[in-house]
C-alpha cells in the first residue's frame, strides 16, 4: 500500500515538474499557434508572451502529441492483414503476399507510423536498386501518405529522404548490387528497416541482415522486415524464412483479396484472365502472382532434368568408360562429377557427384586420387578459369587434367536437355543428390540480356557434369550413327549408278571423252 502510494506520488511530482517547464497555454491557442507558425519558435515567441526556450519546448511537445495522434490513425482498421503485420511486435518479420496485396503501401504506412512515434529516429527502406526504391516508394507511397495525412514532411529527391517535422528521417536505398549505394546511410542506428522485393534479391539477404542490418538496429531495439511476392527463385533467404520457417522470424501471408482497396478489381482481373485462358489458374505464373505461393515454373529451369524420368536406382552392370568433370572453387563449392558411357549404348550415366566448399588444393587432389582408384577415368575435364590452381594440380600433384570446353554454354545445355527429354541421361539415385537438387532449382536469369543462369543459383555440380557430358558426347557421336542394312546399301548404290549413267547419256561425246 505504502509503496503504491509513494510511486503514485512520485509520478504526480514528475508530471508537475514537466508541466511547469511548459508554460500554461490554452489548448486552442496552442493549436492555433502551432498550425500557423508550425516549426518556428521565433514566431511563437513574438506572438505570445512566452520566452524563446519555452516556445521551443511547447512546440516540441505539441509536435510530439500531434505525431502520436496521427500515428494512431495512420493504421487502417479496415485492412486487418496489413495492420496485423505492422502491429506484430516481433523484431524480425516477413510478409509473403500476392501482387497488389498492399505490401509496399503497408511498408510506407509502417515507416511513417514509426517515424511519427519516434522523434529524431532513422528508418530505412531497401529495394533492389535506388531507381526501384524511388519508383515504388517515394512518389507512389510516401508522398501519397504525406498528402493524405498532412504530415508536412520534407522530401529530398537527390538523397531520397523523407524528413518529418519531429526530426525523424526515412532513407530510401537500393542494395542488390552492393552496399555502395547505401554506404552513406549504413553507419546509422535504425528503428526500422524494411526490405521490399525480397524474393528477387540476388545478394545473400541473410548476410545483409545479420552482418549489416542487425547491428544497425541493435541500439534502438529496432525491427527488420522482408516483404515480397514468390517467384521461381527458391535459393533465397526470403524463401527459407517465408516458406520453410527460420527461428526468430514471424511470417505473415495474405493476398490482394484481403486488401479492401483491391478486392473487387482483383476479382475482375482474375475473371478477365480466366476468360481469355480458362486454364490460367494452373500456370506457375498465376500461382506465384495471384495466389502468392512458391512454385517453380518448369519452363524457367535451365535443365530439363526430371527425377522420375532421369534417375535409375543403380548404374548398368556392363563395362563403361568413365569421365570426370571438375569445377574448382573455394568459397563456392568444388564439384566433381563422374559420368560413364559405353560404345554399346547411347546412354550417359552420372554415377557419382562430389560437392564440398572450403577445400584447399591438396585436399582436392586427395579426393581426386581416391576417386580415380575407384573409377579409373579415361579423361578428366576441368574448368580452366583458375589457371594457377589447375597448373598446381597438374604439376605438383601429377593429375592428368584436360581443359573443359566452355564455349556456347547455353547451346550445350539445350543439347543436353534434348537428351534428358529423350531419356539418354540418367542419374544414379542416392549418389548424385546434390546434382539433382541443383537441376531442380537452377533457373535462367530473366533480368539478363542473354540466356544466362541466375547468378545466385548454385551450379557447380551442374557445370562439372556439363564438362564431362560434352566430353562423352564428343566420343559418342560417331559410334551411334544409325547403321544401314545390306539391302539399303545396295539400293543406295543402284540409285547412284543410275544417276551416273543418265548423266553420261545426256553428255556430248567430247564431254564424255574429256571428263
Ligand atoms: N492501407 C491502405 N490504404 C489505402 N490504400 C491502400 C492501402 N494498402 C494498399 N492500398 C492500395 O492497394 C493497392 C496495392 O497496394 P501495393 O502496396 O502497391 O501492393 P503490392 O506492393 O503488394 O503490390 C495500391 O493501389 C494501394 O494504394
Ligand atoms: Mg510493391
Folded structure, characterized:
This protein is of the alpha/beta class. It has four domains: 25-74; 80-266, P-loop containing nucleotide triphosphate hydrolases (Rossmann fold), CATH 3.40.50; 307-476, Nucleotidyltransferase, domain 5 (2-Layer Sandwich); 483-515. The chain is 47% helix and 16% strand. It has 20 helices and 15 strands. The protein has helices at 2-21, 27-37, 41-47, 52-74, 80-87, 103-117, 130-148, 183-186, 205-218, 237-244, 263-276, 284-291, 307-310, 361-375, 387-395, 409-421, 433-441, 460-476, 486-505, 509-514; strands at residues 92-97, 122-127, 154-156, 161-163, 169-174, 190-195, 223-228, 250-254, 311-312, 321-327, 334-342, 345-356, 379-382, 402-403, 425-428. Strands 3-4-5-2-6-7-1-8 form an eight-stranded mixed beta sheet, sandwiched between helices. A seven-stranded mixed beta sheet has the order 9-15-12-11-10-13-14. Helix 9 (205-218) links the parallel strand 6 (190-195) and strand 7. Helix 4 (52-74) runs antiparallel to helix 6. The longest helix is centred in the N-terminal third of the chain and has 23 residues, at 52-74. The chain is elongated. The model has no long low-confidence stretch (mean pLDDT 87). Residues 76, 79, 82, 97, 99-106, 109, 259, 261-262 line the site of adenosine-5'-diphosphate (ADP).
Amino acid at each position: 500500500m505504502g509503496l503504491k502510494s509513494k510511486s503514485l506520488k512520485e509520478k504526480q511530482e514528475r508530471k508537475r515538474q514537466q508541466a511547469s517547464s511548459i508554460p500554461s497555454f490554452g489548448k486552442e491557442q496552442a493549436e492555433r499557434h502551432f498550425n500557423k507558425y508550425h516549426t518556428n519558435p521565433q514566431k511563437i515567441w513574438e506572438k505570445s508572451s512566452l520566452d524563446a526556450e519555452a516556445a521551443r519546448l511547447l512546440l516540441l511537445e505539441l509536435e510530439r502529441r500531434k505525431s502520436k495522434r496521427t500515428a494512431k490513425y495512420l493504421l487502417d482498421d479496415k485492412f486487418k492483414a496489413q495492420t496485423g503485420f505492422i502491429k506484430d511486435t516481433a523484431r524480425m518479420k516477413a510478409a509473403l503476399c500476392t501482387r497488389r496485396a498492399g505490401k509496399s503501401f503497408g511498408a510506407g504506412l509502417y515507416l511513417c507510423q514509426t517515424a511519427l512515434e519516434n522523434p529524431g529516429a532513422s528508418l530505412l527502406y531497401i529495394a533492389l536498386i535506388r531507381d526501384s526504391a524511388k519508383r515504388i516508394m517515394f512518389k507512389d507511397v510516401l508522398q501519397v501518405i504525406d498528402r493524405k495525412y498532412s504530415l508536412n514532411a520534407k522530401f529530398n529527391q537527390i538523397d531520397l529522404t523523407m524528413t518529418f517535422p519531429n526530426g525523424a528521417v526515412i532513407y530510401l536505398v537500393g542494395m542488390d548490387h552492393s552496399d555502395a549505394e547505401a554506404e552513406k546511410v549504413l553507419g546509422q542506428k535504425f528503428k526500422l528497416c524494411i526490405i521490399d522485393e525480397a524474393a528477387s534479391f540476388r545478394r545473400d539477404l541473410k548476410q545483409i541482415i545479420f552482418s549489416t542490418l542487425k547491428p544497425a538496429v541493435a541500439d534502438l531495439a529496432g525491427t527488420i522486415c522482408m516483404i515480397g511476392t514468390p517467384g521461381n527463385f527458391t535459393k533465397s533467404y526470403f524463401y527459407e524464412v517465408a516458406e520453410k520457417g527460420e527461428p526468430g522470424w514471424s511470417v505473415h501471408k495474405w493476398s490482394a483479396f484481403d486488401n479492401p482497396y483491391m478486392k473487387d478489381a482483383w476479382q475482375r482481373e482474375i475473371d478477365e484472365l480466366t476468360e481469355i485462358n480458362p486454364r490460367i489458374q494452373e500456370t506457375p505464373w498465376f500461382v506465384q502472382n495471384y495466389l502468392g505461393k512458391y512454385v517453380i515454373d518448369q519452363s524457367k529451369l535451365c535443365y530439363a532434368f526430371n527425377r522420375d524420368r532421369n534417375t535409375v536406382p543403380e548404374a548398368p552392370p556392363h563395362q563403361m568408360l568413365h569421365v570426370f568433370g571438375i569445377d574448382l572453387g573455394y568459397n563456392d563449392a568444388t564439384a566433381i562429377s563422374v559420368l560413364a558411357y559405353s560404345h554399346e549404348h547411347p546412354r550417359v550415366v552420372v554415377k557419382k557427384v562430389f560437392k564440398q566448399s572450403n577445400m584447399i588444393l591438396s585436399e582436392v587432389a586427395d579426393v581426386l586420387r581416391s576417386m580415380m582408384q575407384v573409377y579409373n577415368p579415361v579423361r578428366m575435364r576441368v574448368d580452366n578459369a583458375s589457371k594457377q590452381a589447375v597448373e598446381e594440380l597438374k604439376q605438383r600433384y601429377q593429375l592428368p587434367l584436360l581443359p573443359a570446353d566452355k564455349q556456347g554454354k547455353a547451346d550445350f545445355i539445350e543439347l543436353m536437355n534434348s537428351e534428358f527429354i529423350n531419356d539418354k541421361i540418367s542419374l544414379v539415385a542416392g549418389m548424385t543428390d546434390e546434382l539433382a537438387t541443383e537441376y531442380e532449382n537452377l533457373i535462367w536469369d530473366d533480368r539478363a540480356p542473354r540466356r544466362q543462369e541466375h547468378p545466385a543459383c548454385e551450379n557447380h555440380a551442374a557445370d562439372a557434369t556439363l564438362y564431362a557430358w560434352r566430353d562423352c558426347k564428343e566420343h559418342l557421336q560417331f559410334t551411334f550413327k544409325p547403321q544401314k542394312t545390306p539391302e539399303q546399301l545396295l539400293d543406295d548404290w543402284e540409285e547412284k549408278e543410275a544417276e551416273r549413267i543418265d548423266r553420261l547419256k545426256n553428255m556430248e561425246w567430247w564431254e564424255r571423252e574429256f571428263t
